[in-house]
Design brief:
Among the domains are: 234 residues, Neutral Protease, domain 2; 74 residues, Serine Threonine Protein Phosphatase 5, Tetratricopeptide repeat (Alpha Horseshoe), CATH 1.25.40. Helices cover 68% and strands 3% of the residues. It is built from 43 helices and 5 strands. α17 packs parallel to α19, α22 packs across α24 and α25 packs across α28. The chain has a 5-stranded mixed beta sheet with strand order 1-2-3-5-4. It is mainly alpha-helical.
C-alpha cells in the first residue's frame, strides 16, 4: 500500500482548501452475510441501533466481550465497559487486544495517564515483537500508539503504520480507514484526512462516522459544506454524539443557549460520560450566568475525570469564541493546572496572550505547546509569523502603538495616527469608556500573514480584526484596489475596542459589528457599507434574519453572502435605534450587557420592547426608509429572482447604448437612477451618465454624477480619480483636494497623487495637510530624497513650523552643501525667524 507521510502543512495550505465533496447519502449500509462479528456490530452501531449492537455482542459470549465494551463506552457506561474489557483480556478471547487498548483509553479518560501509557506500551511492545496480528489487532495497536504519541512524537508515525498494516491485512477494514482519517485530522493534515474518509465511504456508503469526519474537515477549512455533512451524519445515525456536540457548539457560538443546551442534552442522554458535553453545558451556563447549572456540570465532569482538564479547555475555547479573551486565559490556566501537557490549553493561553498584546509571554507559551506537539499547524504558523513581526517597525505615539513592515510603517502612520486619535476621542466621548492602556495596531502587507495572526491559518476573508486592546488589519498593499478602504477599516476595528470594553466583552457580535459600521458612516462620507442590489433583494425576499436572530447571520450563514449583508443590516438596526430611542440608547445597551443581561432583557430595559416587537418595528422602518429601492429591485408580490424595474431599465439602457442610441440610453439611465438614487455600485447609472456628460463636454454635469459614487462608495478609486481630474478642469481646487484625500484611503502608494494633493492643499492654505502629504512622499522613499526634503521644508515654513523647517534644511545641506535651493530657503527662513539674525 502506498505510504502517506504526516507532514506539517505550509502556511498557505488553505489556499488550496478541500473542494466541495459529492452529495453523501444518509442510508443504512447493507451488511454482507459473510461479514465478521466486528463488521455486523459496527453496522448496527453506525445507524444508531446501539441496543441491537449491544445485544448482538452479548449473545456471542466471550468472542463478543471486547465489542460489548466498545458499545458500552458509546453509551457512557464506563464501569460496565471496564468489566467487559477485563473479562475479554482475562479470557484471551478473540478481540482481546481491542479490549486492552479500550482499558488504556478508559484510563486516559479518567485522567490516569500513567496507567494509560503503561497499558498502551505493553500492547505496542507486543505488536512490535509479535506476528500474526489480524486487522482488528493492528487497529488496536494503532490506537495504543496514538495514546503514546502524546509523549512520543515518533509514535504518531507508528500509529499510521499500524493502521496501514490493518488495511493491508484486510482492505475491507472500515475502522482502520476511519482511524487514519481521525489521526490525520488530529495532526492538522486535512487533505489526507479527507481522502481517508472518502476511502471509508467507498467501503460503506453513507457511513455516519466517515460523513462526520468530512464535516470536521470542513470545520477545519472553509466550512462551506460543514452543515450538510453534519446533517447527513445525524440522518444516518441520530445517536452520533460527536455530531450532536458539533451542532451544540455552533448553537453556543451563535449565543442560542437554549438550543445549545437542548442538543447537548440529547448527547448526554446517549452518552452521559462525555466530558465535552458536560463542558458545553457548563460553558452555556457560565456565559449566561447560571451558576447552579455550571456547578452541576463541573461536578459531573469531575466525577469522570477529577482534574477535568478538557472540561476547562472546552470552557476556555467557548469563552474566547464569545470574545472574553481574559477569562479564556484564566480557564485555560485551570486546565493546565490539571494537565501541564495540554497543548490545547497552552495554545489558548498563548494565542490570547498575543491578543492582549503580551507578545513575549505569548510566544513563550506557544513554543511550549509546539515542543509537545510539533504537528500543530496553528502554533507553527503563529510562531513563524512572530519571527516576521520581529522585523517590523514599531511607532509608539499617544494612545497607540503601530507595528508594521518597515516599508509600510512610516507611510501609514502619517495618516493612521491622526485618524485613530480622532476616532479615539470621538468614541470615548460617545461610549463613556477609555481603554486601560495603549491600543496596539498591527498592519500586514500580506493577507495570509494577517489571517494567521487572526485565526492561525491563511484564508480568512476579513480585512481587520479587533481583540480589544490589539487590532490587526491588512495594509492596502495586501488587497486589490477598489475592494478596501484602510481608513474605514481602522476606524471600524477601533470601534470594536470601545464596544467590547464598555460591555465587558459581552456585546453580541451583531451589535458590535453594527455599531462599528454605523461609526464608519459617521466618520466620513462614503465609509461603511453602501446600498447594493444584493442587499435589497435579500431583504425583500426574506433571506436576511430578523433582529432577534441576527447573530445567526454572522455565525451560521445560510447562503454565501449572508454574513457580509448582515454587517449592513446590523448597522441599520443601530441607526434605527438611535433615531427612535436617542443617542444614549446604544451606550445604555452596552452597559446592560456589561451587567450580565441577555439580549431580550437589554431590549426590555433600554428600549422597552420585546425582541418580537423590535423585529416588527425594524421591518416597518426598513420598508418606510427604503421604499423606493425595495420597490425598484424586488416589487411586492413578485416571485424571488424576478428582475425589478431598476434592473430592467439598466438592461434596456445597455441595449440602447450598444446600438449607439446614446440619448435614449441616457433617458433610461436617468429613469433607473430615479428609482434607486443612492446606488453607487460599479457601472451603475451614475457612472454611465458621468461618461455620457464627459463625452459631451458637460463637465459640471459629469461631476454631479460622479460625486454620487464617491460620496457613497468608500472604495471607488477610479471614480475619485476621475472626479479629481474633472474638478481640476473646472478650477475647483477644494473639490479636487477632497477627491484626492478619498483616494489616499484607498491606495496611498502613488507619489503623483500626493504631489497633487500637496500642491492643492498649499493653494487652499491648508498647510497642515500640505505638510502631511510631503511627509508621505518621503515615506514612499522617492528617488530624489533631497528635493522631497526641500519641499517638506517649504511646506513647514508655510505652516509656521520654522524650527522643524530649519532642522530639515540643515539635514539636507549636510548631505549636499551645494544644494542651492536649500541654501536660498534657509536664508529666507533666517530673515523670517526672530532670534536667528533676522526679523520676522
Amino acid at each position: 500500500m502506498k505510504r502517506r507521510a504526516l507532514l506539517l502543512g505550509s502556511l498557505l495550505w488553505l489556499s488550496a482548501a478541500c473542494s466541495s465533496a459529492d452529495h453523501v447519502d444518509a442510508q443504512q449500509p447493507a451488511v454482507n452475510r459473510n461479514a465478521t462479528l466486528t463488521q455486523r456490530v459496527a453496522a448496527l452501531s453506525d445507524v444508531g441501533k446501539l441496543d441491537e449492537a449491544e445485544q448482538l455482542a452479548r449473545s456471542q459470549g466471550a468472542p463478543g466481550l471486547a465489542l460489548l465494551g466498545e458499545m458500552l463506552v458509546l453509551r457512557g457506561r464506563l464501569a460496565a465497559a471496564d468489566s467487559a474489557y477485563r473479562a475479554s483480556v482475562t479470557a484471551q478471547a478473540p478481540g482481546y487486544r481491542t479490549a486492552q487498548v479500550g482499558l488504556a483509553e478508559l484510563a486516559w479518560r479518567r485522567g490516569d495517564r500513567k496507567q494509560a501509557l503503561q497499558l498502551a506500551q505493553a500492547l505496542t511492545n507486543a505488536y512490535v515483537s509479535g506476528s500474526n496480528w489480524n486487522a482488528d489487532d493492528c487497529v488496536a495497536a494503532g490506537r495504543a500508539f496514538v495514546i503514546i504519541g502524546t509523549t512520543d512524537k515518533q509514535a504518531v508515525k507508528n500509529a499510521l503504520a499500524a493502521f496501514d498494516r490493518a488495511i493491508e491485512e484486510d482492505p475491507s477494514t472500515l475502522e482502520a480507514h476511519l482511524r487514519v482519517g481521525d489521526l490525520f485530522l488530529d495532526k492538522y493534515n486535512a487533505p489526507d484526512a479527507k481522502a481517508s474518509y472518502e476511502d471509508a465511504l467507498k467501503l460503506a456508503p453513507g457511513n455516519s462516522r466517515a460523513t462526520f469526519g468530512l464535516a470536521r474537515v470542513e470545520d477545519f477549512g472553509s466550512g462551506k459544506d460543514e452543515a450538510k455533512y453534519v446533517k447527513a451524519s445525524l440522518d444516518a445515525n441520530p445517536s452520533l454524539t460527536n455530531a450532536l456536540l458539533m451542532v451544540a457548539r455552533k448553537h453556543l457560538e451563535s449565543e442560542a443557549y437554549d438550543s445549545a443546551d437542548a442538543v447537548t442534552g440529547r448527547a448526554l442522554a446517549i452518552d452521559s460520560s462525555s466530558l465535552t458535553a458536560w463542558a458545553l453545558l457548563g460553558a452555556s451556563a457560565w456565559i449566561s450566568g447560571d451558576s447552579a447549572e455550571y456547578k452541576h456540570a463541573l461536578v459531573s465532569a469531575q466525577k469522570l475525570n477529577p482534574g477535568a482538564s478538557e472540561f476547562y479547555a472546552e470552557m476556555a475555547d467557548a469563552a474566547v469564541r464569545h470574545r472574553r479573551y481574559g477569562q479564556g486565559v484564566m480557564l485555560a490556566r485551570l486546565a493546565l493546572a490539571a494537565d501541564t501537557l495540554s497543548t490545547r490549553a497552552l495554545g489558548i493561553v498563548g494565542t490570547n496572550e498575543l491578543r492582549e498584546g503580551k507578545m513575549e509571554e505569548g510566544r513563550a507559551t506557544l513554543e511550549r505547546a509546539f515542543a509537545i506537539d510539533p504537528y500543530n499547524l496553528w502554533h507553527k504558523n503563529t510562531l513563524d509569523l512572530l519571527d516576521l513581526v520581529r522585523t517590523f517597525k514599531t511607532i509608539d505615539r499617544g494612545n497607540f502603538v503601530v507595528v508594521a513592515p518597515p516599508k509600510e510603517a512610516d507611510l501609514m502612520s502619517v495618516y493612521l495616527l491622526p485618524l485613530l486619535q480622532e476616532a479615539y476621542d470621538t468614541l470615548s466621548r460617545r461610549y463613556q469608556y477609555k481603554p486601560s492602556g495603549k491600543v496596539r495596531l498591527e498592519i500586514y502587507d500580506r493577507h495570509a500573514d494577517f489571517s494567521v495572526r487572526t485565526v492561525g491559518l491563511a484564508g480568512l476573508g476579513a480585512l481587520g480584526v479587533s481583540f480589544g486592546p490589539v487590532l490587526a488589519m491588512d495594509s492596502p498593499r495586501a488587497r486589490e484596489t477598489n475592494e478596501f478602504n484602510w481608513g474605514a477599516t481602522a476606524w471600524h476595528e477601533l470601534a470594536h475596542t470601545f464596544t467590547l470594553g464598555s460591555s465587558g466583552n459581552r456585546v453580541p457580535r451583531w451589535l458590535s459589528e453594527g455599531i462599528s459600521v454605523a461609526e464608519e458612516r459617521r466618520a466620513r462620507s462614503g465609509w461603511g457599507f453602501d446600498e447594493t442590489l444584493d442587499f435589497f433583494d435579500a431583504y425583500a425576499n426574506g433571506k436576511l434574519r430578523p433582529v432577534s436572530q441576527l447573530n445567526e447571520g454572522f455565525l451560521r450563514p445560510r447562503f454565501e453572502a449572508e454574513t457580509i449583508l448582515s454587517y449592513n443590516l446590523a448597522s441599520l438596526v443601530c441607526e434605527m435605534i438611535e433615531s427612535q430611542w436617542g443617542a444614549a440608547a446604544l451606550p445604555a445597551m452596552l452597559k446592560g450587557y456589561r451587567e450580565g443581561l441577555e439580549t431580550p432583557e437589554v431590549f426590555l430595559k433600554v428600549l422597552k420592547v420585546t425582541p418580537d416587537s423590535l423585529d416588527k418595528a425594524f421591518d416597518a422602518y426598513m420598508k418606510k426608509r427604503y421604499a423606493l429601492p425595495l420597490a425598484a429591485i424586488a416589487p411586492k408580490g413578485s416571485p424571488p429572482g424576478t428582475a425589478g424595474p431598476f434592473v430592467l431599465a439598466m438592461r434596456k439602457a445597455a441595449d440602447l447604448a450598444k446600438d449607439g442610441k446614446t440619448e435614449e440610453a441616457r433617458t433610461e439611465l436617468l429613469r433607473a437612477q430615479a428609482m434607486f438614487p443612492d446606488y453607487a455600485g460599479p457601472n451603475g447609472a451614475a457612472w454611465q451618465l458621468a461618461m455620457i456628460e464627459k463625452e459631451r463636454g458637460n463637465i459640471k454635469a459629469a461631476v454631479d454624477q460622479i460625486s454620487r459614487i464617491t460620496t457613497r462608495n468608500g472604495t471607488a478609486f477610479e471614480a475619485n480619480m476621475l472626479e479629481a481630474d474633472l474638478r481640476e478642469q473646472l478650477g475647483d481646487t477644494t473639490g479636487m483636494k477632497r477627491a484626492l484625500e478619498r483616494v489616499i484611503w484607498i491606495n496611498p502608494y502613488d507619489p503623483a497623487v500626493h504631489v497633487r494633493l500637496a500642491v492643492a492643499s498649499t493653494r487652499t492654505r491648508d498647510f497642515k495637510r500640505a505638510i502631511l502629504e510631503r511627509r508621505a512622499i518621503l515615506a514612499l522613499d522617492p528617488a530624489d530624497k533631497l528635493d522631497a526634503h526641500y519641499e517638506l521644508a517649504r511646506a513647514l515654513i508655510d505652516g509656521g513650523e520654522f524650527a522643524e523647517a530649519r532642522r530639515t534644511l540643515l539635514a539636507v545641506l549636510e548631505q549636499s552643501p551645494a544644494f542651492e535651493k536649500a541654501q536660498t530657503l534657509l536664508l529666507e527662513l533666517r530673515n523670517r525667524t526672530p532670534g536667528a539674525g533676522g526679523t520676522k
